[in-house]
Design brief:
single chain, about 725 residues, mainly beta, Jelly Rolls, Immunoglobulin-like, 5 domains, five-stranded mixed β-sheet, globular
Length: about 725
């Protein structure tokens, strides 16, 4: 019955997750960033693919030390656009070389580039709009992960990851937009890479940036010395967690290392339970080695982006314990590669409960991130030899036990005393803290009778997990007496890296919140207090702000979905509101009732709101017992995996734009020459001022053609002469 309730709850959540997707259809979207990072102290060209990016204004990068400038925006050309560009190109080429101006030569190059990258039927239209950026990383920019978004009048886009690296970088030439593959003629859509680009020579240590096309293998040749302990790590799924129209739902890279004779010496397609592979290799002799990367089923597209780091970099394979108690110091032991002289810094003693990313540092270089949990409950360490109930380790509730399944087929047993009717929660936190443990826990009484058992429990708060391997149950004790909690690995594996945090305690009713999507746009209007007494916000907006790109943007407030992830059986109400005083933004609180897991939350902005995107905070309040609990909502994106499953993927910021047209200039565009009087009304409204009668083109066709010509002219693809000639054709065709 309990399993049935969990399944129904998951189905309800999955159905509710579809709601914000429909509401976000016109929201700007970015599907890949390439390269997905840069070295400290460098400036690099970056290509970004997405959709609904018209009117792009700026780029926002979280954290410090990284800035981006927009160079150009290429919307997907229609066949008619391509024909017009070809006509303009032909006209320019007919001009003799000695008569061409520098502007003509530049325009020829721009049109040739645009046509060379034109694809009539892209493999994925959702990433076929291309933005060209110039990204600058300061020399002192902290290394690690950032979030990159583009800002348009429709609001901020979804975030994608951009990394600040510490090693020299090599970036392959960016791919053009992939063409759709036709069954039986797939070869026509394959990328034809020049032979000299298939394998690239690099010097290690370095970071390699690339994109994998369908059926493609990228190879890198380097020289290594005997005794080097090479760490070869990959970022791929971590860059773009879910690709909706692919199975398994992400780029699944494979790494293979060959020696100078072409013999395979190392291989990896997953690092433990993570899809991104890692190779740890001690070089046996001096010589050349070749690293190859490809997709496990030879798929590929421009959003199959990777970053590979090769070098003797610090890499942590495990830490112990996996967490500690709030406000108390903790000593961490770590295992891994290239850690001689490395130091690991724990969260500060005043850090609140939660999960933190910590790093080992060696010679100024940081390791892979390691999650570390802080909690308020008392803690203890597991004492080995507790493999049976007869030798069980005695504990007093509530308690968090830091332990290990330190060898295959190991079981740890813990004994406590309980009373009849007492409710006990048993929860394992291991896989969520990057432990390879796939736990199974059970509760037995003094006679060995099974009271409760659980293998896998789905934590909806961990949106990047697709194998929920941690265990959890809440059980009512049937009688006074002694009870035993048994923990082991479901596959009977073990080792020093198989750490866990086992909580045994009474229920701690609580909740976590997710706000979806992680960005929004709200249109500035008159001050809120004045509007309440005079007119509606909606009317005020229509009279002052107008709209951009259609009726879908009209409105006076932004609305997001707030999801509650209830813990330890909490079913009480949760009051949702903006956190504290956030100047210029206003919202009426709303309440999530005990029967609800999602609610819509709306907020407004007036003219005092900042004109630049800001990070807003939404909180939930609940009275649990005699305490008021306040939890801040984590921004998240609703993402689909492999056509079916949905996940709430956490983001760093809830990015909100209070839109003010006067403070939002678009990219610089040319002003076209004035249209003939007979076409002015057609251009703006699609209605002709001419007489009725037989016409070569309908009014709507003429209006559409004029808009098409204007767009290409504004973006600098037409000369005045060519533009006016095409306008004259429209006039003649009325």
């Amino acid at each position: 019955m309990k399993t049935k309730r969990i399944l129904v709850g998951c189905l309800v959540l999955a159905a509710s997750l579809a709601v914000p997707v429909r509401a976000q259809q016109s929201r700007p979207y970015i599907g890949f960033v390439y390269p997905a990072g840069a070295q400290q102290g460098t400036t690099v060209p970056v290509r970004l693919g997405g959709q609904a990016l018209e009117g792009i204004h700026s780029v926002q990068v979280s954290g410090s030390g990284v800035s981006a400038k927009i160079l150009e925006y290429h919307w997907p050309l229609s066949p008619q656009d391509a024909r017009l560009l070809q006509e303009q190109l032909s006209e320019l080429r007919r001009t003799r070389l000695r008569d061409r101006t520098p502007a003509d030569t530049n325009l020829i190059a721009r049109i040739e580039y645009r046509l060379r990258n034109y694809v009539q039927r892209p493999a994925s239209r959702s990433i076929s709009s291309i933005v060209y950026l110039e990204v600058t990383v300061a020399p002192d920019a902290p290394p690690g992960e950032r979030e990159l978004r583009v800002i348009t009048p429709r609001g901020p886009s979804n975030p994608l990851v951009f990394y600040v690296g510490q090693l020299p970088e090599h970036t392959r030439k960016p791919m053009r937009t992939s063409a759709q593959q036709v069954l039986g003629k797939e070869y026509l859509a394959l990328r034809n890479r020049p032979a000299d680009e298939a394998e690239v020579r690099v010097n290690i240590p370095c970071t390699l940036n690339g994109q994998i096309a369908s059926r493609e293998v990228n190879s890198y040749r380097f020289t290594a010395r005997k005794g080097q302990r090479l760490v070869i790590t990959t970022l791929a799924r971590q860059l773009i967690p879910y690709i909706a129209d692919g199975v398994p739902g992400w780029f699944q890279p494979v790494l293979v290392l060959y020696d100078a004779n072409g013999k395979e010496v190392a291989y990896d397609d997953d690092y433990r339970f993570k899809p991104d592979p890692t190779i740890l290799y001690e070089v046996p002799k001096d010589g050349e080695y070749v690293l190859a990367i490809y997709d496990a089923v030879y798929r590929g597209r421009e959003d199959f982006v990777y970053r590979i780091t090769i070098g003797e970099e610090p890499f942590v394979t495990s830490i112990f314990p996996l967490g500690g108690r709030v406000g108390q110091p903790v000593s961490i032991t770590m295992k891994g590669w290239n850690l001689d002289g490395a130091a690991i810094r724990t969260p500060p003693t005043d850090a609140p409960e939660g999960v933190y990313q910590i790093f080992a540092t060696r010679n100024g270089h940081i390791s892979n991130p390691i999650p570390f949990a802080l909690d308020t409950l008392p803690e203890c360490l597991e004492k080995e030899g507790n493999n049976t109930p007869a030798r069980a380790q005695k504990v007093t509730l509530p308690i968090i036990i830091n332990g290990r399944i330190d060898k295959p087929d190991d079981t740890d047993v813990f004994q406590f005393t309980g009373k009849s009717g007492q409710t006990v929660v048993v929860e394992v936190n291991a896989r969520r803290l990057d432990s390879p443990l796939d736990s199974i826990v059970k509760l037995t009484d003094a006679k060995g009778k099974l009271v409760a058992v659980n293998d896998d429990w789905e934590d909806l708060a961990t949106g990047l997990n697709t194998h929920h391997a941690d265990s959890y149950f809440m059980a009512k004790l049937p009688a006074d007496g002694t009870y035993y909690v048994h923990i082991s690995d479901a596959a009977r594996r073990g080792g020093e890296e198989y750490g866990y945090r086992l909580r045994i305690s009474p229920p701690r009713p609580d909740f976590a919140l997710r706000v979806v999507p992680s960005s929004a746009v709200v249109y500035r209007s008159a001050p809120y207090q004045a509007m309440k007494s005079k007119t509606s916000y909606s009317k005020s907006f229509k009279s002052s702000a107008g709209s951009y790109g259609g009726s879908s943007l009209r409105g006076s407030s932004a609305t997001v979905s707030v999801y509650a992830i209830r813990k330890d059986g909490y079913t009480g109400p949760i009051k949702i509101e903006l956190k504290g005083s956030q100047p210029g933004f206003y919202a009426q609180p709303t309440t999530l009732l005990g029967s609800q897991d999602v609610v819509r939350f709306s907020f407004r902005a007036d003219t005092s709101a900042p004109k630049q995107p800001v990070n807003l905070f939404i909180v939930g309040r609940a009275k649990i017992g005699d305490q008021e609990i306040v939890r801040e909502a984590t921004p998240a994106e609703d993402r689909m995996q492999a056509f079916l499953w949905r996940h709430l993927v956490p983001a760093k910021e809830f990015c909100v734009l209070a839109y003010d047209p006067s403070a939002f200039p678009a990219l610089e565009k040319r002003t076209p020459p004035e249209l003939p009087a007979s076409l002015t009304k057609v251009s703006s409204s699609g209605k002709s001022a001419g007489s009725s009668g037989d016409k070569k083109f309908s009014k709507s066709q003429v209006a559409g053609r004029l808009r098409q010509l204007r767009r290409l002219y504004e973006d600098g693809y037409f000369t005045d002469k060519f533009y006016l000639a095409k306008v004259a054709e429209c006039e003649a065709g009325q």
